[in-house]
Model the fold of this input.
Amino acid sequence: MTDSAETQSNAMWGGRFSAGPDAIMEAINASIGFDQRLYAQDIQGSRAHAAMLAAQGIISAADAEAIRDGLLNVLSEIEAGAFPFRVALEDIHMNVEARLKEIIGEPAGRLHTARSRNDQVATDFRLWVRDQCDAAIKGLEALMRAALVQAEAGAGWVMPGFTHLQTAQPVTWGHHMLAYVEMFARDRSRFIDARARMNECPLGAAALAGTSFPIDRQATAAALGFDRPMANSLDAVSDRDFALEFLAAASICAMHLSRLAEELVIWSSAQFRFVALSDRWSTGSSIMPQKRNPDAAELIRAKIGRILGATVALFTVMKGLPLAYSKDMQEDKEQVFDAADTLMLALAAMEGMLGDLTVNRANLEGAASSGFSTATDLADWLVREAGLPFRDAHHVTGTLVALAESRGCDLPALSLGDMQAVHPAITESVFEVLGVHNSVASRRSYGGTAPDQVRAQVARWQEVLG
Ligand code: ARG
Done:
Protein backbone atom coordinates (compact mmCIF):
# COMPACT_ATOMS: atom_id res chain seq x y z
CA MET A 1 0.00 0.00 0.00
CA THR A 2 1.44 3.39 -0.87
CA ASP A 3 0.25 6.88 -0.20
CA SER A 4 0.60 8.01 -3.78
CA ALA A 5 -1.55 5.69 -5.78
CA GLU A 6 -0.70 7.12 -9.16
CA THR A 7 0.01 3.84 -10.80
CA GLN A 8 -1.36 1.44 -8.30
CA SER A 9 -5.04 0.60 -8.20
CA ASN A 10 -6.86 0.36 -4.91
CA ALA A 11 -6.25 -2.98 -3.23
CA MET A 12 -9.79 -3.01 -1.82
CA TRP A 13 -11.67 -2.61 -5.06
CA GLY A 14 -9.05 -2.34 -7.80
CA GLY A 15 -9.47 -5.80 -9.34
CA ARG A 16 -10.81 -4.45 -12.60
CA PHE A 17 -8.65 -1.31 -12.59
CA SER A 18 -5.27 -1.11 -14.21
CA ALA A 19 -4.38 2.41 -13.06
CA GLY A 20 -4.79 4.35 -9.85
CA PRO A 21 -6.87 7.51 -9.54
CA ASP A 22 -5.78 10.98 -10.55
CA ALA A 23 -4.48 12.95 -7.58
CA ILE A 24 -7.46 15.29 -7.74
CA MET A 25 -9.83 12.34 -7.96
CA GLU A 26 -8.20 11.01 -4.83
CA ALA A 27 -8.53 14.37 -3.10
CA ILE A 28 -12.23 14.75 -3.87
CA ASN A 29 -12.97 11.13 -3.08
CA ALA A 30 -11.16 10.67 0.19
CA SER A 31 -12.95 11.13 3.49
CA ILE A 32 -10.23 9.84 5.80
CA GLY A 33 -9.33 13.42 6.72
CA PHE A 34 -12.57 13.65 8.68
CA ASP A 35 -14.14 10.21 9.01
CA GLN A 36 -11.21 8.96 11.09
CA ARG A 37 -13.35 10.27 13.92
CA LEU A 38 -15.47 7.16 13.42
CA TYR A 39 -12.62 4.75 14.21
CA ALA A 40 -14.01 3.47 17.51
CA GLN A 41 -17.46 2.88 16.02
CA ASP A 42 -15.93 1.24 12.95
CA ILE A 43 -13.92 -1.19 15.03
CA GLN A 44 -16.85 -1.86 17.34
CA GLY A 45 -19.06 -2.65 14.31
CA SER A 46 -16.42 -4.90 12.74
CA ARG A 47 -15.95 -6.83 15.96
CA ALA A 48 -19.68 -7.47 16.24
CA HIS A 49 -19.81 -8.51 12.59
CA ALA A 50 -16.84 -10.91 12.85
CA ALA A 51 -18.17 -12.53 16.01
CA MET A 52 -21.56 -13.04 14.33
CA LEU A 53 -19.93 -14.50 11.17
CA ALA A 54 -18.14 -17.06 13.35
CA ALA A 55 -21.23 -17.86 15.42
CA GLN A 56 -23.09 -18.53 12.17
CA GLY A 57 -20.30 -20.74 10.84
CA ILE A 58 -19.60 -18.32 7.97
CA ILE A 59 -15.97 -17.89 9.03
CA SER A 60 -13.92 -20.07 11.35
CA ALA A 61 -13.59 -19.38 15.07
CA ALA A 62 -9.82 -19.08 14.61
CA ASP A 63 -10.21 -16.42 11.92
CA ALA A 64 -12.72 -14.53 14.07
CA GLU A 65 -10.29 -14.56 16.95
CA ALA A 66 -7.44 -13.32 14.78
CA ILE A 67 -9.70 -10.56 13.46
CA ARG A 68 -10.79 -9.58 16.96
CA ASP A 69 -7.21 -9.41 18.28
CA GLY A 70 -6.06 -7.55 15.19
CA LEU A 71 -8.85 -5.00 15.50
CA LEU A 72 -7.94 -4.39 19.14
CA ASN A 73 -4.39 -3.86 17.97
CA VAL A 74 -5.53 -1.33 15.37
CA LEU A 75 -7.62 0.41 18.03
CA SER A 76 -4.65 0.85 20.33
CA GLU A 77 -2.47 2.07 17.46
CA ILE A 78 -5.04 4.74 16.63
CA GLU A 79 -5.47 5.72 20.26
CA ALA A 80 -1.72 5.97 20.68
CA GLY A 81 -1.52 8.27 17.65
CA ALA A 82 0.64 5.67 15.89
CA PHE A 83 -1.73 4.73 13.10
CA PRO A 84 -0.66 5.50 9.53
CA PHE A 85 -3.83 7.03 8.04
CA ARG A 86 -3.56 6.83 4.24
CA VAL A 87 -5.46 9.01 1.80
CA ALA A 88 -5.09 6.42 -0.93
CA LEU A 89 -7.29 4.15 1.17
CA GLU A 90 -10.12 6.70 1.02
CA ASP A 91 -11.85 6.29 4.31
CA ILE A 92 -11.70 4.95 7.84
CA HIS A 93 -13.27 1.64 6.85
CA MET A 94 -10.61 0.75 4.30
CA ASN A 95 -7.80 2.18 6.40
CA VAL A 96 -8.72 -0.07 9.31
CA GLU A 97 -9.18 -3.13 7.14
CA ALA A 98 -5.93 -2.63 5.26
CA ARG A 99 -4.01 -2.23 8.49
CA LEU A 100 -5.71 -5.33 9.85
CA LYS A 101 -4.43 -7.20 6.83
CA GLU A 102 -0.89 -5.98 7.48
CA ILE A 103 -1.15 -7.16 11.07
CA ILE A 104 -2.96 -10.51 10.78
CA GLY A 105 -2.66 -11.40 7.10
CA GLU A 106 -5.15 -13.59 5.27
CA PRO A 107 -8.02 -13.79 7.81
CA ALA A 108 -8.49 -10.00 7.45
CA GLY A 109 -9.87 -10.59 3.98
CA ARG A 110 -12.77 -12.58 5.46
CA LEU A 111 -14.06 -9.73 7.62
CA HIS A 112 -15.91 -8.08 4.74
CA THR A 113 -17.98 -11.22 4.02
CA ALA A 114 -21.70 -10.40 3.93
CA ARG A 115 -21.03 -6.72 4.43
CA SER A 116 -20.48 -3.58 2.37
CA ARG A 117 -19.08 -0.20 3.21
CA ASN A 118 -22.62 1.04 2.68
CA ASP A 119 -24.09 -0.75 5.69
CA GLN A 120 -20.79 -0.32 7.53
CA VAL A 121 -20.77 3.47 7.28
CA ALA A 122 -24.50 3.71 8.02
CA THR A 123 -23.91 1.68 11.19
CA ASP A 124 -20.80 3.56 12.29
CA PHE A 125 -22.43 6.93 11.78
CA ARG A 126 -25.59 5.94 13.63
CA LEU A 127 -23.48 4.81 16.57
CA TRP A 128 -21.65 8.13 16.55
CA VAL A 129 -24.78 10.26 16.31
CA ARG A 130 -26.41 8.16 19.03
CA ASP A 131 -23.50 9.04 21.35
CA GLN A 132 -23.94 12.70 20.49
CA CYS A 133 -27.62 12.51 21.45
CA ASP A 134 -26.50 11.19 24.83
CA ALA A 135 -23.95 13.99 25.15
CA ALA A 136 -26.56 16.62 24.26
CA ILE A 137 -29.00 15.15 26.81
CA LYS A 138 -26.32 15.29 29.50
CA GLY A 139 -25.30 18.81 28.54
CA LEU A 140 -28.89 19.99 28.64
CA GLU A 141 -29.46 18.42 32.04
CA ALA A 142 -26.42 20.23 33.44
CA LEU A 143 -27.65 23.48 31.93
CA MET A 144 -31.15 22.96 33.34
CA ARG A 145 -29.63 22.44 36.78
CA ALA A 146 -27.70 25.70 36.50
CA ALA A 147 -30.87 27.54 35.46
CA LEU A 148 -32.77 25.93 38.34
CA VAL A 149 -30.23 27.19 40.86
CA GLN A 150 -30.86 30.69 39.52
CA ALA A 151 -34.62 30.13 39.54
CA GLU A 152 -34.67 28.91 43.12
CA ALA A 153 -32.55 31.80 44.40
CA GLY A 154 -34.60 34.36 42.50
CA ALA A 155 -38.11 32.97 42.93
CA GLY A 156 -39.12 36.26 44.58
CA TRP A 157 -36.84 38.74 42.80
CA VAL A 158 -38.93 41.12 40.78
CA MET A 159 -37.86 42.22 37.32
CA PRO A 160 -39.62 43.76 34.37
CA GLY A 161 -41.21 41.34 31.98
CA PHE A 162 -41.04 42.57 28.41
CA THR A 163 -43.07 42.38 25.27
CA HIS A 164 -41.63 44.12 22.21
CA LEU A 165 -38.66 44.73 24.58
CA GLN A 166 -40.89 47.37 26.22
CA THR A 167 -41.68 47.03 29.91
CA ALA A 168 -44.90 45.02 30.09
CA GLN A 169 -45.62 43.58 33.55
CA PRO A 170 -43.47 42.67 36.51
CA VAL A 171 -42.31 39.05 36.61
CA THR A 172 -39.82 37.23 38.80
CA TRP A 173 -36.27 36.31 37.92
CA GLY A 174 -37.11 32.74 38.86
CA HIS A 175 -39.99 32.71 36.42
CA HIS A 176 -37.79 34.01 33.63
CA MET A 177 -35.19 31.32 34.33
CA LEU A 178 -37.87 28.64 34.42
CA ALA A 179 -39.01 29.67 30.96
CA TYR A 180 -35.61 28.50 29.70
CA VAL A 181 -35.78 25.35 31.81
CA GLU A 182 -38.98 24.48 29.94
CA MET A 183 -37.34 25.15 26.57
CA PHE A 184 -34.26 23.12 27.41
CA ALA A 185 -36.45 20.30 28.68
CA ARG A 186 -38.22 20.16 25.33
CA ASP A 187 -34.82 20.20 23.60
CA ARG A 188 -33.78 17.31 25.79
CA SER A 189 -36.89 15.35 24.92
CA ARG A 190 -36.26 15.95 21.23
CA PHE A 191 -32.83 14.31 21.55
CA ILE A 192 -34.37 11.46 23.57
CA ASP A 193 -37.01 10.90 20.88
CA ALA A 194 -34.49 11.09 18.04
CA ARG A 195 -32.21 8.66 19.84
CA ALA A 196 -35.01 6.14 20.31
CA ARG A 197 -36.00 6.37 16.64
CA MET A 198 -32.45 6.02 15.31
CA ASN A 199 -31.66 3.03 17.48
CA GLU A 200 -32.08 0.41 14.76
CA CYS A 201 -29.16 -1.37 13.14
CA PRO A 202 -28.34 -1.10 9.42
CA LEU A 203 -25.58 -3.72 9.58
CA GLY A 204 -26.33 -6.71 7.39
CA ALA A 205 -28.15 -4.69 4.75
CA ALA A 206 -24.88 -5.15 2.82
CA ALA A 207 -24.57 -3.03 -0.34
CA LEU A 208 -28.33 -2.51 -0.73
CA ALA A 209 -30.17 -5.80 -1.17
CA GLY A 210 -29.19 -7.89 1.85
CA THR A 211 -26.98 -10.95 1.55
CA SER A 212 -27.15 -14.61 0.62
CA PHE A 213 -25.05 -15.58 3.65
CA PRO A 214 -26.96 -16.88 6.68
CA ILE A 215 -26.19 -13.87 8.89
CA ASP A 216 -27.86 -13.12 12.21
CA ARG A 217 -28.88 -9.48 12.20
CA GLN A 218 -30.56 -9.73 15.60
CA ALA A 219 -27.20 -10.69 17.08
CA THR A 220 -25.22 -7.80 15.59
CA ALA A 221 -27.99 -5.34 16.45
CA ALA A 222 -27.98 -6.52 20.07
CA ALA A 223 -24.18 -6.54 20.30
CA LEU A 224 -24.11 -2.90 19.22
CA GLY A 225 -26.85 -1.83 21.64
CA PHE A 226 -29.51 -1.32 18.96
CA ASP A 227 -33.11 -2.24 19.69
CA ARG A 228 -33.53 -4.19 16.46
CA PRO A 229 -32.15 -4.52 12.93
CA MET A 230 -33.60 -2.18 10.31
CA ALA A 231 -36.31 -3.98 8.38
CA ASN A 232 -35.50 -2.83 4.86
CA SER A 233 -32.02 -3.08 3.41
CA LEU A 234 -32.51 -0.27 0.87
CA ASP A 235 -33.70 2.08 3.58
CA ALA A 236 -30.93 0.96 5.93
CA VAL A 237 -28.09 2.03 3.63
CA SER A 238 -29.67 5.08 2.07
CA ASP A 239 -31.40 7.23 4.63
CA ARG A 240 -29.74 9.80 6.83
CA ASP A 241 -32.89 11.01 8.52
CA PHE A 242 -31.38 10.10 11.89
CA ALA A 243 -28.63 12.64 11.30
CA LEU A 244 -31.17 15.20 10.13
CA GLU A 245 -33.25 14.67 13.25
CA PHE A 246 -30.16 15.21 15.35
CA LEU A 247 -29.38 18.39 13.43
CA ALA A 248 -32.97 19.61 13.68
CA ALA A 249 -32.98 19.06 17.43
CA ALA A 250 -29.57 20.75 17.64
CA SER A 251 -30.81 23.71 15.60
CA ILE A 252 -33.82 24.27 17.83
CA CYS A 253 -31.67 23.93 20.93
CA ALA A 254 -29.10 26.35 19.49
CA MET A 255 -31.91 28.81 18.79
CA HIS A 256 -32.95 28.67 22.45
CA LEU A 257 -29.36 29.10 23.56
CA SER A 258 -29.03 32.04 21.22
CA ARG A 259 -32.05 33.79 22.74
CA LEU A 260 -30.74 33.39 26.27
CA ALA A 261 -27.33 34.56 25.07
CA GLU A 262 -28.95 37.64 23.58
CA GLU A 263 -30.64 38.37 26.91
CA LEU A 264 -27.32 38.05 28.71
CA VAL A 265 -25.77 40.50 26.27
CA ILE A 266 -28.56 43.00 26.85
CA TRP A 267 -28.77 42.46 30.60
CA SER A 268 -25.03 42.86 31.13
CA SER A 269 -24.91 46.17 29.24
CA ALA A 270 -24.29 49.44 31.09
CA GLN A 271 -27.80 50.53 30.16
CA PHE A 272 -29.49 47.56 31.84
CA ARG A 273 -27.06 46.33 34.51
CA PHE A 274 -29.38 43.47 35.42
CA VAL A 275 -26.51 40.98 35.64
CA ALA A 276 -22.75 40.87 35.80
CA LEU A 277 -20.80 38.09 34.15
CA SER A 278 -17.89 36.80 36.18
CA ASP A 279 -14.29 37.44 35.17
CA ARG A 280 -14.13 33.85 34.01
CA TRP A 281 -16.82 34.53 31.46
CA SER A 282 -15.88 38.01 30.25
CA THR A 283 -13.18 39.52 28.12
CA GLY A 284 -11.63 42.97 28.14
CA SER A 285 -10.74 45.39 25.41
CA SER A 286 -7.18 46.19 24.40
CA ILE A 287 -8.04 49.87 23.98
CA MET A 288 -11.01 50.63 26.27
CA PRO A 289 -10.05 49.78 29.85
CA GLN A 290 -13.61 50.00 31.17
CA LYS A 291 -14.89 47.21 28.93
CA ARG A 292 -16.17 43.83 30.08
CA ASN A 293 -17.40 42.09 27.02
CA PRO A 294 -19.81 39.14 27.01
CA ASP A 295 -17.94 37.35 24.20
CA ALA A 296 -19.07 33.87 25.12
CA ALA A 297 -22.71 34.95 25.04
CA GLU A 298 -22.17 36.67 21.71
CA LEU A 299 -20.52 33.59 20.25
CA ILE A 300 -23.30 31.32 21.49
CA ARG A 301 -25.73 33.74 19.86
CA ALA A 302 -23.80 33.42 16.60
CA LYS A 303 -23.24 29.68 16.59
CA ILE A 304 -26.81 28.88 15.64
CA GLY A 305 -25.66 29.93 12.16
CA ARG A 306 -23.26 27.02 11.85
CA ILE A 307 -25.68 24.47 13.22
CA LEU A 308 -28.57 25.61 11.09
CA GLY A 309 -26.18 25.80 8.13
CA ALA A 310 -25.24 22.16 8.66
CA THR A 311 -28.91 21.24 8.78
CA VAL A 312 -29.65 23.00 5.51
CA ALA A 313 -26.53 21.49 3.92
CA LEU A 314 -27.49 17.92 4.76
CA PHE A 315 -31.10 18.40 3.69
CA THR A 316 -29.76 19.71 0.39
CA VAL A 317 -27.42 16.73 -0.03
CA MET A 318 -30.22 14.26 0.60
CA LYS A 319 -33.24 15.74 -1.09
CA GLY A 320 -32.65 14.55 -4.65
CA LEU A 321 -30.91 11.22 -4.10
CA PRO A 322 -32.46 8.15 -5.67
CA LEU A 323 -32.29 4.94 -3.58
CA ALA A 324 -30.01 3.47 -2.47
CA TYR A 325 -26.49 4.70 -1.60
CA SER A 326 -24.81 7.54 -3.52
CA LYS A 327 -21.41 8.99 -2.77
CA ASP A 328 -23.09 12.32 -2.08
CA MET A 329 -23.87 10.86 1.31
CA GLN A 330 -20.23 11.02 2.33
CA GLU A 331 -20.90 14.75 2.72
CA ASP A 332 -23.09 14.02 5.75
CA LYS A 333 -20.29 13.68 8.24
CA GLU A 334 -18.39 16.97 8.37
CA GLN A 335 -21.63 18.88 8.82
CA VAL A 336 -22.81 16.72 11.68
CA PHE A 337 -19.37 16.65 13.33
CA ASP A 338 -19.15 20.43 13.29
CA ALA A 339 -22.72 20.94 14.46
CA ALA A 340 -22.28 18.48 17.33
CA ASP A 341 -18.98 20.02 18.45
CA THR A 342 -20.50 23.47 18.28
CA LEU A 343 -23.59 22.49 20.23
CA MET A 344 -21.67 20.77 23.04
CA LEU A 345 -19.40 23.78 23.40
CA ALA A 346 -22.31 26.21 23.47
CA LEU A 347 -24.17 24.12 26.07
CA ALA A 348 -21.11 23.97 28.32
CA ALA A 349 -20.40 27.69 27.96
CA MET A 350 -23.97 28.62 28.77
CA GLU A 351 -23.98 26.36 31.81
CA GLY A 352 -20.73 27.98 32.98
CA MET A 353 -22.02 31.51 32.50
CA LEU A 354 -25.30 30.88 34.30
CA GLY A 355 -23.50 29.21 37.16
CA ASP A 356 -21.28 32.25 37.67
CA LEU A 357 -23.82 34.98 37.02
CA THR A 358 -24.31 37.74 39.58
CA VAL A 359 -27.81 39.18 39.51
CA ASN A 360 -28.29 42.80 40.48
CA ARG A 361 -31.56 42.56 42.40
CA ALA A 362 -31.83 46.28 43.09
CA ASN A 363 -31.57 47.17 39.41
CA LEU A 364 -34.01 44.45 38.45
CA GLU A 365 -36.55 45.73 40.93
CA GLY A 366 -35.95 49.37 40.06
CA ALA A 367 -36.54 48.64 36.41
CA ALA A 368 -39.64 46.61 37.26
CA SER A 369 -41.10 49.54 39.17
CA SER A 370 -40.76 51.97 36.30
CA GLY A 371 -42.43 52.13 32.94
CA PHE A 372 -45.97 51.81 34.37
CA SER A 373 -45.47 48.08 34.70
CA THR A 374 -48.46 47.70 37.02
CA ALA A 375 -50.94 49.40 34.69
CA THR A 376 -52.60 46.04 34.01
CA ASP A 377 -52.94 45.49 37.75
CA LEU A 378 -54.76 48.80 37.98
CA ALA A 379 -57.09 47.87 35.13
CA ASP A 380 -57.75 44.47 36.73
CA TRP A 381 -58.52 46.24 40.05
CA LEU A 382 -61.09 48.44 38.31
CA VAL A 383 -62.76 45.31 36.90
CA ARG A 384 -62.65 43.38 40.16
CA GLU A 385 -63.38 46.10 42.72
CA ALA A 386 -65.34 48.71 40.77
CA GLY A 387 -67.18 46.35 38.41
CA LEU A 388 -66.03 48.09 35.21
CA PRO A 389 -65.99 46.15 31.93
CA PHE A 390 -62.32 45.43 31.06
CA ARG A 391 -62.36 47.68 28.00
CA ASP A 392 -63.54 50.65 30.11
CA ALA A 393 -61.00 49.81 32.81
CA HIS A 394 -58.29 49.78 30.14
CA HIS A 395 -59.39 53.25 28.99
CA VAL A 396 -59.46 54.71 32.52
CA THR A 397 -56.01 53.24 33.23
CA GLY A 398 -54.67 54.68 30.00
CA THR A 399 -55.88 58.13 31.08
CA LEU A 400 -54.12 57.70 34.44
CA VAL A 401 -50.89 56.58 32.74
CA ALA A 402 -51.01 59.67 30.53
CA LEU A 403 -51.55 61.82 33.61
CA ALA A 404 -48.59 60.25 35.42
CA GLU A 405 -46.45 60.61 32.33
CA SER A 406 -47.30 64.32 32.07
CA ARG A 407 -46.29 64.71 35.71
CA GLY A 408 -43.08 62.75 35.17
CA CYS A 409 -44.00 60.25 37.88
CA ASP A 410 -45.09 56.60 38.14
CA LEU A 411 -48.60 55.34 38.91
CA PRO A 412 -48.16 54.84 42.68
CA ALA A 413 -47.07 58.50 42.96
CA LEU A 414 -50.48 59.81 41.83
CA SER A 415 -52.74 60.93 44.68
CA LEU A 416 -56.12 59.37 45.39
CA GLY A 417 -57.67 62.71 44.41
CA ASP A 418 -55.93 62.59 41.01
CA MET A 419 -57.28 59.12 40.48
CA GLN A 420 -60.81 59.87 41.58
CA ALA A 421 -60.89 62.82 39.23
CA VAL A 422 -60.46 60.29 36.42
CA HIS A 423 -62.85 57.72 37.90
CA PRO A 424 -64.86 58.27 41.09
CA ALA A 425 -65.07 54.57 41.99
CA ILE A 426 -61.34 54.38 42.76
CA THR A 427 -60.54 53.95 46.47
CA GLU A 428 -57.43 53.90 48.63
CA SER A 429 -57.10 50.12 48.28
CA VAL A 430 -55.99 50.56 44.66
CA PHE A 431 -52.51 51.41 45.93
CA GLU A 432 -52.07 47.84 47.14
CA VAL A 433 -52.00 46.53 43.60
CA LEU A 434 -49.65 49.18 42.27
CA GLY A 435 -46.58 47.78 44.02
CA VAL A 436 -44.54 45.30 41.99
CA HIS A 437 -44.32 42.70 44.75
CA ASN A 438 -48.09 42.60 45.14
CA SER A 439 -48.38 42.47 41.38
CA VAL A 440 -46.25 39.34 40.97
CA ALA A 441 -47.71 37.71 44.09
CA SER A 442 -51.20 38.10 42.63
CA ARG A 443 -50.37 36.18 39.43
CA ARG A 444 -51.07 32.80 40.95
CA SER A 445 -52.72 31.19 37.94
CA TYR A 446 -51.06 27.91 36.93
CA GLY A 447 -47.83 28.72 35.11
CA GLY A 448 -47.94 32.32 36.37
CA THR A 449 -45.11 34.34 37.84
CA ALA A 450 -46.15 34.37 41.54
CA PRO A 451 -43.20 33.31 43.73
CA ASP A 452 -45.23 30.38 45.13
CA GLN A 453 -45.88 29.12 41.63
CA VAL A 454 -42.23 29.51 40.74
CA ARG A 455 -41.13 27.57 43.83
CA ALA A 456 -43.56 24.79 43.02
CA GLN A 457 -42.19 24.52 39.47
CA VAL A 458 -38.60 24.58 40.72
CA ALA A 459 -39.43 21.69 43.06
CA ARG A 460 -41.06 19.77 40.22
CA TRP A 461 -37.99 20.14 38.00
CA GLN A 462 -35.60 19.29 40.79
CA GLU A 463 -37.49 16.06 41.20
CA VAL A 464 -37.44 15.32 37.46
CA LEU A 465 -33.69 15.87 37.28
CA GLY A 466 -33.08 13.95 40.50
N1 ARG B 1 -16.66 6.86 2.82
C1 ARG B 1 -17.94 6.43 2.34
C2 ARG B 1 -19.02 7.34 2.96
O1 ARG B 1 -18.74 7.99 3.88
C3 ARG B 1 -18.18 5.01 2.74
C4 ARG B 1 -19.16 4.29 1.86
C5 ARG B 1 -18.57 4.04 0.53
N2 ARG B 1 -19.45 3.29 -0.28
C6 ARG B 1 -19.32 3.19 -1.58
N3 ARG B 1 -20.19 2.50 -2.23
N4 ARG B 1 -18.35 3.80 -2.23
O2 ARG B 1 -20.13 7.37 2.50
